[in-house]
């Protein structure tokens, strides 16, 4: 009986309170209104009170005996006030107004209406979320699934708080995220698209700056020219910078983009520009060969357009490789600016932006060797024997006889006394060169000075050997780093100056070598012997035929290392290989019409041999005999000694223009 009594009491209480709790059958939300529909005779909400903003939202309700429709008009102003906790006023089933703490079930909260894009930065920061019904029942933060809180900026208890434009203190992230409201409504958003603003490079990596890159390689894919970079090559990544291992040895443009959190960036073009780092100097009055060293000085594209300008002067006949550009710069008139000229290199339209300056007539010693006991300086702008002074340990060497080649790139002299651990520099026309450390006390001489191209035993005499090295055997180190061991020929018991034999391998042209014994090293050079041309003749058809012994040079001809060179005015023209008939005892070639003003050379491994003493079966009227300086085998004779003359006759066919200076320049370029 007691249990039955309690049941009726509980039923009565539940039924009574049930009259106060509205249960909408339907509700609709828009930016213009909130519309809730109830059953006829059911309780319904007549007003919502937002305690944080102290704002009441009334409903206008219409009963058509089938249902009750309650509408709250909405606009931008009252929508700002709808935030925080909610209390309600209810018209119960008996028509009575009840304003008690009857909460609104979260499932009847209006769904948020998001306006515009919500795309926060991946690094986070102040972010605005705009729309309607954003903070219904929410006082201080949103929730990003699964459990990350995103706090509001500003107090919701102030009237100035705007529930249609909520500032969030977003902590950042990568990839898609989901906001969840108390009524279970989910809104999935992604971050702002990554933007690449700039890029730079060093010798090992590419460094890119911008925004929204994320801070984890798990969320990103990086592409260069549409090829994805292996994630193992990502050195570092943060929201505004990433660095990848990437090295480009050629001048070119690349297209870079990043996909971050499934969002693609802009396509950013980055130019790997030519980077000239060093340039030689040349005589202003003569012009000459410019050598520029650096990085990315060529392109992988065939037939690339490479333009070199030095100041306002174009450098011609450009030859480029990855790390070097050579070109010819003409002589400049005295009135032109000759110092601190900007060096500009354009490769397929990509121009260097570093500041490399060029000046004429700056003497510079880059190296020295000791051939046959001489000192041979190698460098630029050595002047002439009249204008150049040699200083050793700040003392002018006034009694030296110096020899300087025409291009002013080598200077040779025989020291009056051996130079030991000294400082050497030049003064050329009043301009001082750099200072180099030099020691010529340990040097070598060879017999013969020019070995055969098929290889030959050559005796080298080593001078001023240290006593600690008497029991050592010398070694020759060739340019390819191969070595040749010397053999003591035991012609003397004097070991401070001693001779050794070396089996020089077959080869051709000029060779720079080092000879070491113990802890002493001397650098020198030798030239393989050139062929001997006994005689040359021409017939009525101007076919030139030369006799001699060329057996040892057939292999070099087959390797395209033997050519005929014509000098046409100031141009050098190589006869096509198939027009030269080269045999063991003769060679012949046709003097073509385009080579009617010539001096003629046999180029053997970049060493020039004049074709002299041509006998004519019938001398044309325009034929003249010219004199030029011969190119000899001995290394000391490869210099164009400017304080002496040594002429030899040469025959030439057709109209002849004197081009002695041009020949000297070309010959010097091969030394």
UniProtKB/TrEMBL annotation:
GO cellular component: membrane
UniProt entry tagged with the keyword Nucleotide-binding: no
Stored InterPro entries: Dictyostelium_Tiger (IPR052014), Ig-like_fold (IPR013783), Ig_E-set (IPR014756), IPT_dom (IPR002909), TgrO1-like_Ig (IPR057594)
Domain TgrO1-like immunoglobulin-like: start-end pairs: 117-191, 446-525
The keyword Membrane appears for this protein: yes
Localization of this protein: Membrane
Classification via Gene3D superfamilies: Immunoglobulins
Domain IPT/TIG: 280-355
A Pfam family matched in the record: TIG
Keywords (A to Z) from UniProt: Glycoprotein, Membrane, Signal
Position of the signal peptide: 1-18
PANTHER family xref list: IPT/TIG DOMAIN-CONTAINING PROTEIN-RELATED-RELATED, IPT_TIG DOMAIN-CONTAINING PROTEIN-RELATED
Name the UniProt record assigns to this protein: IPT/TIG domain-containing protein
Naturally occurring in which organism (per UniProt): Dictyostelium firmibasis
């Amino acid at each position: 009986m007691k249990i039955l009594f309690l049941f009726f009491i509980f039923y009565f209480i539940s039924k009574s309170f049930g009259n106060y709790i509205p249960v909408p059958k339907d509700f609709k939300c828009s930016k213009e209104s909130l519309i809730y529909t109830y059953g006829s005779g059911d309780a319904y909400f007549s007003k919502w009170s937002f305690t944080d903003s102290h704002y009441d939202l009334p409903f206008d309700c219409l009963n058509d005996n089938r249902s009750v429709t309650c509408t709250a008009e909405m606009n931008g102003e009252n929508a700002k006030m709808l935030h925080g906790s909610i209390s309600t006023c209810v018209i119960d089933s008996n028509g009575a107004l009840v304003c008690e703490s009857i909460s609104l079930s979260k499932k009847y909260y209006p769904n948020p209406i998001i306006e515009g894009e919500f795309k926060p930065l991946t690094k986070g920061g102040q972010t605005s979320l705009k729309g309607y019904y954003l903070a219904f029942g929410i006082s201080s933060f949103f929730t990003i699934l699964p459990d990350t809180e995103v706090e509001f900026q500003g107090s919701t208890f102030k009237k100035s708080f705007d529930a249609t434009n909520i500032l969030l203190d977003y902590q950042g992230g990568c990839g898609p995220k989901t906001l969840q409201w108390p009524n279970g409504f989910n809104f999935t958003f992604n971050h702002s698209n990554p933007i690449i603003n700039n890029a730079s490079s060093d010798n090992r990596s590419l460094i890119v700056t911008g925004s929204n890159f994320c801070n984890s390689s798990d969320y990103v894919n990086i592409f260069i020219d549409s090829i994805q970079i292996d994630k193992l090559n990502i050195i570092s990544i943060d929201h505004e910078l990433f660095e990848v291992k990437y090295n480009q040895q050629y001048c070119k443009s690349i297209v870079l983009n990043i996909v971050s959190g499934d969002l693609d960036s802009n396509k950013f073009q980055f130019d790997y520009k030519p980077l000239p780092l060093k340039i030689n100097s040349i005589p202003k009055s003569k012009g000459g060969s410019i050598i520029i060293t650096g990085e990315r000085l060529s392109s992988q594209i065939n037939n690339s357009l490479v333009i070199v300008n030095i100041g306002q002067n174009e450098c011609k006949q450009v030859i480029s490789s990855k790390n070097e550009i050579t070109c010819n710069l003409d002589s400049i008139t005295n009135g032109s600016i000759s110092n601190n000229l900007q060096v500009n290199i354009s490769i397929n339209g990509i121009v260097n932006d570093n500041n490399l300056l060029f000046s004429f007539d700056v003497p510079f010693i880059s190296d020295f060797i000791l051939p046959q006991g001489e000192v041979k300086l190698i460098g630029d702008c050595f002047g002439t024997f009249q204008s150049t002074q040699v200083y050793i340990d700040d003392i002018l060497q006034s009694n030296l006889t110096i020899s300087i080649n025409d291009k002013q790139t080598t200077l040779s002299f025989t020291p009056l006394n051996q130079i030991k651990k000294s400082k050497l520099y030049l003064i050329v026309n009043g301009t001082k060169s750099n200072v180099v450390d030099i020691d010529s006390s340990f040097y070598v001489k060879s017999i013969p000075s020019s070995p055969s191209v098929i290889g030959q035993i050559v005796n080298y005499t080593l001078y001023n050997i240290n006593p600690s090295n008497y029991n050592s055997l010398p070694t020759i180190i060739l340019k390819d780093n191969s070595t040749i061991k010397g053999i003591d020929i035991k012609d003397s018991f004097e070991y401070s100056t001693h001779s050794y034999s070396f089996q020089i391998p077959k080869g051709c042209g000029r060779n720079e070598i080092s000879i070491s014994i113990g802890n002493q090293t001397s650098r020198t050079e030798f030239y393989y012997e050139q062929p001997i041309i006994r005689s040359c003749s021409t017939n009525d058809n101007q076919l030139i035929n030369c006799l001699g012994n060329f057996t040892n040079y057939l292999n070099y001809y087959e390797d395209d290392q033997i050519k005929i060179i014509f000098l046409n005015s100031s141009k050098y023209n190589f006869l096509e290989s198939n027009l030269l008939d080269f045999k063991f005892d003769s060679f012949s070639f046709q003097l073509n019409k385009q080579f009617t003003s010539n001096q003629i050379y046999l180029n053997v491994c970049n060493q020039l041999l004049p074709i002299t003493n041509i006998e004519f079966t019938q001398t044309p009227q325009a034929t003249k005999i010219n004199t030029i300086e011969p190119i000899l085998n001995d290394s000391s004779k490869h210099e164009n000694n400017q304080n002496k003359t040594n002429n030899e006759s040469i025959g030439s066919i057709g109209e002849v223009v004197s081009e002695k200076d041009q020949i000297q320049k070309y010959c010097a370029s091969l030394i």
